[in-house]
Amino acid sequence: MVGLSEAPQRAPGRWQIAEVERIRVETPRTKTFRLRPPMWVPHLPGQHYDVRLTAPDGYRAERSYSIASSPLDEGAVELTVDRLDGGEVSTYLHDVLVEGDQVEIRGPFASYFVWRGEEPVLLIGGGSGVVPLMCMLRHRRRTAPDLPMRLLYSARTRAEVIYADELGDDAIVALTREPEGAPAPDLPRVQLGRIFPGLLAAEAFDSGLAFVCGSNSFVESIAQMLLAVGYAPDRIRTERFGPTG
Amino acid sequence: MAGEEPGFVSRGFVGKPHGPGADRLPPGQYLERGFPVLTAGPTPRVEPSDWSFRIDGMVDHELEWSWEEFGRLPAEDVPCDIHCVTKWSKLGISFRGVSVDVLLDSARPQGEFSMARSFGGYTTNLALDDLTGGRAWVVTEHEGAPLPREHGGPARLLVPHLYFWKSAKWVSGLRIMDHDEPGFWEANGYHNRGDPWQEQRYWSD
Ligand SMILES: Cc1cc2nc3c(=O)[nH]c(=O)nc-3n(C[C@H](O)[C@H](O)[C@H](O)COP(=O)(O)OP(=O)(O)OC[C@H]3O[C@@H](n4cnc5c(N)ncnc54)[C@H](O)[C@@H]3O)c2cc1C
Fold first, then answer.
1. ipTM of this predicted complex?
2. Which residues contact B201 (CB under 8 A, 6 or more apart)?
3. Which of A59, A113, A147, B96 could anchor a disulfide with A55, C-beta 3.0 to 4.6 Å?
4. Which of A 6-25 lie inside 8 A of B, CB atoms?
5. What domains appear along chain B, each with residue ranges and CATH number?
6. Calpha distance A20→B188 (Å, rounded)
7. Nearest to B190 by CA among B175, B204, B180
């Protein structure tokens, strides 16, 4: 980490103008934006950045986006954004932003929904709720590949599975609306239908934390199931994206 | 406040029509029509018969009300706007409950700070200045109906002039203190006071 330890890290939280280095289409509705802020600060898996858009008349819109990339990916921050029809910020990021553009961001923020190396860890995500969990999974693969960590990921269809080529035996994907007669999904571990209590019970650990992220209704139903399979409330950390679910 | 980058404009960004109501939105907030739910963990189930509200710590008189006793206190309607640190605001919402002034009146606080606590272990700190003077309530109704469980029912604190995490759901009491201490989110990266008009979101703000 030559060059990083010398100067004291600038505190997070100042707005910076980052460059959009690369845009990757993940699924028809999601894109990953690889950003390069001038002052990069290592983040904890689970943290988020704020993105701010400013119109010529000074009007501004701000939203939060979880970090998808590992903090070992120095100098860059990847955000994966779901495009919501009629959404103010996500449609701008999807439809207007191109590589080489600039975007204002600040972060990383928050220290509750973060993974600090605890084990074992159960990750449960719905839709774009998989983003901060992917950061945890990626970071674990690069720092402690043997640490017990499992991902349960609920998506509507195979086509909507984000990061599909990175999902291994440590991930089960639940496809809730895969059309009848669709070809068998090319994923290591799949189940058709919602995440159900029996699946959770089979994948649950006797100790350690569960991180649950997604829409409010998803988080609420998973949290109730976790309580039922024996997770005490203080073992369950939740993050709820998006106003409705 | 965070540092400004004067003059930066996002190429091609116009934004939603920012018409009436825009002046009631603090910086960085957007108008939300639903009523999102944000909680750090699972939603606790608190029955009114198990609920009580207690004021303790540095007070002349520690006090506790059961649900029934609380229902006999003078209540008022509280029309307000609420602002969540995750960026949404909701305008023209209404709650009903008991002013914290009424609750503190007979307890006689001897400290300047407080920690609100909730069923489920949540805490949030508030200066007494922010809790008194008709600016904070313990509410039990939302839009004329009992406060739903996911929004903190049977009772939550309501401090609309601060970010909404200060309005502790499933509130169970207030501890009056002679010093300030961070509560749950305040210990986890969020601002100690949380004034939306000064955009006090995070520690560094
Ligand atoms: C901590 C945190 C982390 C997050 N991480 C991620 C992430 O990693 N990836 C991600 O994709 N999202 C994430 N989110 C959600 C994100 O912040 C935004 O809420 C999301 O992108 C929607 O913003 P928007 O501006 O596109 O939509 P908004 O303009 O806020 O609209 C939201 C929804 O309401 C609808 N809507 C808007 N206006 C109207 C109207 N007038 N009438 C009817 N409906 C309307 C829109 O169609 C849309 O579906 C995160 C949120 C938080 C709080």
1. 0.85
2. A50, A109, B28, B85, B163, B190, B191, B194
3. A59
4. 11-17
5. 53-198 (3.90.420.10)
6. 29
7. B204
pTM score, whole prediction: 0.86
Domains in chain A, please, with CATH? 16-109 (2.40.30.10), 121-240 (3.40.50.80)
Distance separating alpha carbons of residues B145 and A204, to the nearest angstrom: 38
Per residue in A200-210, pLDDT (tens digit) is 999 999 999 99
Residue contact A112–B36, C-beta within 8 A: no
Host H or E run for residue A33: strand A30-36
CA pseudo-torsion sign A215, B126, B124, B119: negative
Q: For B27, name the nearest residue in chain A, comparing CA atoms only.
A: A60
Q: If DSSP codes are grouped into helix, strand and coil, which group holds residue A97?
A: coil
**Separation between Cα atoms, residue A15 and residue A19, nearest integer Å:** 13
List Cβ neighbours of B31 (8 Å cut-off, separation of 6 or more). Answer: B21, B25, B88, B89, B90, B91
Contact A20, A34 (CB under 8 A): yes
Contact B42 A238 (CB under 8 A): yes
State the number of CA atoms in the 13 A half-sphere of B108 facing the CB.
3
Q: Which two tokens stand for residue B116?
A: 């609100």
Asked if B26 and B1 touch (Cβ cutoff 8 Å), the reply is no
Q: A65 CB less than 6 Å from ligand 1?
A: yes
> What would the pLDDT profile of B112-131 be if each residue is shown by its tens digit?
999 999 999 999 999 999 99
Amino acid identity of A194?
A: R
C-beta of A89 in contact with ligand 1 (< 6 A): yes
